[in-house]
Structure of Regulator:
Amino acid sequence: MQRLITLTGTAGVGKSRLARQVVELEQAAGGSDSCWADLWQLSDERMLAALVADACGLSDHTPRMPVDVICQWIGERDLLIVLDSCEHVLPASRRLVATLLDNCPHLTILATSREVFHLEGEYVVVVEPLPCATDAAELFLQRAGQMGVVPQPGELNQVTELCTYLDGLPLALELAAGALRHSSIEELLHRPRHNLHREESDPVHLPAPRRHEVLRTALGWSHELCTPKERLLWARLSIVLGHFDVPMAAALCAGGPLTARDVEDALAGLVDKSVVTSRGERFLLLDTVREYGRLWLTQLGELDSMATAHATYFLTLARQADSTWTSAEQTGWYRTIKDAHPDLCAALDYLLLHRVDDALELATLTGFYWTCCGHAHTAQQYLARALQAGDSGQQMHTRQRAIWALGLTHLLQGNHATGNHLARQCLALARSDEDSAGLLRAAYLQAMSDLLQGNARQALDFLDQALRSAQEADDAEPAGHAEMMCRMLRLFALTGVGRLDESEAAARALRVQCVVMGEHWIRSYTDYQLCVIALREQHGEAALEHARSMLASKQQIGDTFGIALGLDMLAAAYSASGDGRSAALASGAGQRLWEAVGHPQRGAPDVQPLREFGENTARQLVGAGAYDTYHRAAAHADPAAMLKWAAGGEAPL
C-alpha cells in the first residue's frame, strides 16, 4: 500500500478537487479518518506544522514542538492526512512528510503540489486535464448553466473548440463559463491570447508551459471582462490569505476610486465571473487567482500600501476583540480570531518588519485567545519575537501586557520556572508604572503558577493583596478584565484551602455578573468551581447541573482544554449520582480530547482525588469490565456526537 501519494500537475488542473473526491470515497467506504490541511493559507513555512496540527484538531498546551505533537497524537492511528497546495512551502513540507511517515506507521499522506517531493516510496499521480470533447465540455456547460447562460445548439462545436483551446483545465473552464455573462463563446475564441506553442517532447511529468499560459489566458479573459473597479478590487483582495466577508472587503479595499458601495458591487461582479469563490456569506480567492491578483497589485504599486492596510485592519480587529472581551460578543470574537489565524500571522510578520510596537500590541491582544484555543506555541513565538525586537522605548503598559501573555503561554505549557520569572517582571513593571490593572495581571500570573504547583494558600494571599490594592487605587484605566480574572482565580484558591462556603458564595456572585454581561470564559470556571464544591459535599445532582453548564460555555468559545476538563467533571458528577455507565462514557470522551490537548488530565492538583474517586465509584457501580468497555467505546466515538450527548442528548453508543 502506498503511504505517500502526490497529486501533481499544473495550476488549475483540479488536484484539490480530485483529492476531495478521494477523501469522500474513503469516507463512504468506511475507511480511515481524515484531516485536511489547506497549506495555501501559509505566507511562509514557519507555521506549517502548527497549521497541520490545527487541521488534525490538536489544541496543544505543552512546550513540545508542533511536529512532535502531531507524531505523538497520530501514533498507531490509521489516518489519512491531506496536504493541499504544498508547492510554495515544498522544502518544509518534504521534511514534515518524511518525519510523519517515519514516526507514524499507519499514516497515509495525500499531497497536492505543482512539484513532487522526490521522497523514497512516493507514488506520483500526474493529474491531466479533462478530455476536451467529453468531460471538459460537460463541466463547461454545467458551470455555464449555473451562471444562467445556456449555449445554443449551433454553439456546441464552439464549446468543444473552446475546451480544446483551454486544454481541458477545470479552473480555466470555470473562468470561461463565468465570462459568458459578458461575452459570447465566439468572442472569447477571438480574444488576444498568449503564445501557446509547446514542444511535443516536453516530459509529461513536468509542468506544461502551454498549460500555464492557457490558465493565464483564461485569467486574462476574466480580467479583461472586469470593469476597472472590479480589476482594482481583485488586485487589492489578493492581500487576504483566508476567507473574508463584505465588511472586511470594504474596510480593506475602499479608497481612491473605490467607495464602500463600489466594493460591494464589484465583489458581486467578481463572484459572477467566477473570480471570487462564494461560500455563503464568506468569500475566498483561490490561490492561483490570488497569485494573478497579486501580480497586478504589484504592477499598480499598491503592494506595500495594501500590506499596511491589511496589518492595520487586523490590529484594529484585535483591539475591538479585546475591548469587548467580557461582553456578549466574546463567543463571536473567539470564532473570528480563530478564523482569521492565517491573516493575523501575516499581519504580525509585516508589523515585525515595519512597526515593531504595533507588532507587540497585536501579539499581546491575540496571545490570550490563541493560548486558550490551542495556539500557545504560535502565541509564544510571536510574543517572544516582538519583545526581542522592541526596546525600552516601547510603552511600558503594552510591554507589561506582552510579558503577561508570554508568561501565560509558559504556565499553561507547564513551564513554571519561566512563568514565575515573567510574573516577577510583570510585577516590577506594574509597580514602576503604578498600574493597578498591571498589578492584577501580575498577581493572576503568579497565583496561577502557585495553584498549579499546589500552593493554594500562597495564591490566595497574593490575590487578596492585589485585589485590595486595586480597590484603593485611583487608576485612569479600568481594571475590569484583570479584576474579574483575579476574582475567578481566587475561587480556586478558596476551594484549595477548604473555605468552600466562601468560594461558593463568591462563585455565584461572579457567575451572576458574567451572565448579565453575556461573558462565557470566566463563567465556565465559576461553574467548574461550583461543580468541584458540589462533589466535595456529595451533591451529585447539583454537580451534574454545573458540569453541563460549564461544558455549554466552553463549547460556545471552542476551548478544547476546558471541554476536556468539563467532561472529567461530568464523569465525576455522574458517579456521584450513581450512574456508572454515563460516568465511563464521559470519561472516555474526555480522554480523546485530553490527547488532542497533549496533557494528561489537568486542573488544580486538589481535583485529581475527585477524578480518582469518581472512577473507582463508577467501576464499582457497573463492574470493571463494563466500565472499560464503555470508556473505550466513547474514546473512539465521534467527538461531536459525544458532546451532544453530554449536553443532554441521546447516547450514540
